[in-house]
Design brief:
Structural class: mainly alpha
Number of strands: 0
Order of helices and strands: HH
Largest sheet: none
Number of helices: 2
Shape: elongated
Helix content: over 70%
């Protein structure tokens, strides 16, 4: 099933908040190895979401995945 643009935007907003919280935790040096892995996974997921939006709006694709 194809996601709607509003669903993609919603997921992107939630992902960005999660990334912000993890970056804050990492900058304070209060993170675990699991946190670092989760941050990498979220960054990849964010790139996928951005690519999905770019495809809908016929913009250039982000290469980072």
């Amino acid at each position: 099933m194809k996601k709607t643009i509003s669903t993609i935007i919603d997921e992107l907003i939630i992902t960005n908040i999660k990334i912000f919280m993890l970056v804050d935790k990492i900058q304070k040096n209060k993170h675990t190895r699991t946190d670092a892995k989760k941050l990498q996974d979220l960054n990849s997921f964010r790139a996928e979401l951005c690519n999905a939006l770019n495809k809908e709006f016929k913009e250039r694709k982000i290469v980072k995945l």
